[in-house]
Amino acid sequence: MQNERLRAAMAAGCWTYASLADKVDVDPKSVERWVNLGRTPRRKTAVQAAEAIGEDVFALWPKLRQARAARAVSPELVALYDQRADLPVSTFVDLFTQARERIDVLVYAAVFLHEAYPRLNDLLRERAAEGCAVRIALGNADSENVQQRGQEEKFGHGIASRCRLALMHYRPLLGVPGVELRTHGTTLYNSLYRADDQMLVNAHVWGVNAYGAPVWHLRRHNEGGMFDTYAESFEAAWRTGTPAQEG
């Protein structure tokens, strides 16, 4: 598809492929592709070319506007899901399977993992045996915040009972080298599932069960980004936790 606006602007300014290419330091064939094939140059080059011929860069290459909008969301956002129920459990399993350095889980219960994937403990043992540090933080069923969450979600004692069930699921991992299990009573704003530099964040919405709330998939891009914000949140919650006991 030809870029007719670019062709017209170049013609009006008497620009040739060679002269514009020389101005922005590219090969003339690149300019020819911009015009005849509708190719979009790199942003820096596009800005230089637009300034040279006196045109708006986004008018010449609308795709650059779309790319700018995408970057404005966050370079760390891999995917966004309307609700956790939209994700198959294999998404979580695959994430943990890829981990080589660390697996961090901050939840109240998340019993769906063991219910849908009974080999979860085996997977975590295998990862730990390969040198991966595994930390699981579960909700303290007797804590005020867990009790409050049950009331807010109109789930009564259901959440507290699920916290106890989750603890039963993970107890066989107590004493496994490389695996730590704690309970916490924090206000859980998000459930976090981290594997190295990737993380699934299950947002919590007042009055909505976690499976009906959104999830975003993050991949760490640079220091101080969204990923680090949630990673630091895990560390803060982890420090408040109490090591789970046998029995």
What is the fold's blueprint, element by element?
Layout (H helix, E strand, L loop, with lengths): L3 H9 L4 H8 L3 H9 L6 H11 L3 H4 L1 H12 L3 E5 L7 H10 L3 E5 L5 H5 L3 H10 L3 E7 L4 H9 L5 H13 L8 E6 L5 E6 L2 E6 L11 E5 L6 H15 L1 E2 L4
Parallel strand pairs: 2-3, 3-4
Antiparallel strand pairs: 1-7, 2-5, 4-8, 5-6, 6-7
Task: Describe what this molecule looks like in 3D.
With 247 residues, this protein is an alpha+beta fold. The chain has 2 domains: 4-73, 434 Repressor (Amino-terminal Domain); 77-243, Endonuclease Chain A (Endonuclease, Chain A, 2-Layer Sandwich), CATH 3.30.870.10. It contains 12 helices and 8 strands. An 8-stranded mixed sheet has the order 1-7-6-5-2-3-4-8, with helices on both faces. Helix 2 (17-24) crosses helix 3 (28-36). It is elongated, with a radius of gyration of 26 Å.
Number of helices: 12
Report the CATH C-level class of the largest domain.
Answer: Alpha Beta
CATH architecture type of the largest domain: 2-Layer Sandwich
What is the CATH homology-level superfamily of the largest domain? Endonuclease Chain A
The total count of strands amounts to 8
Mean pLDDT equals: 89
Strand content: 15-25%
Most strands sheet: 8 strands, mixed
Listing every helix as H and every strand as E from the N terminus to the C terminus, the arrangement reads: HHHHHHEHEHHEHHEEEEHE
Sequence stretches where pLDDT stays below 50 over 5 or more residues: none
Enumerate the strands of the largest sheet in spatial order, edge to edge or round the barrel.
1-7-6-5-2-3-4-8
End-to-end Cα distance, whole Å, is 69 Å
CATH topology of the largest domain: Endonuclease, Chain A
Number of domains: 2
Radius of gyration: 26 Å
Shape: elongated
- Name the structural class: alpha+beta
What percentage of residues falls in helices of 4 or more residues? 40-55%
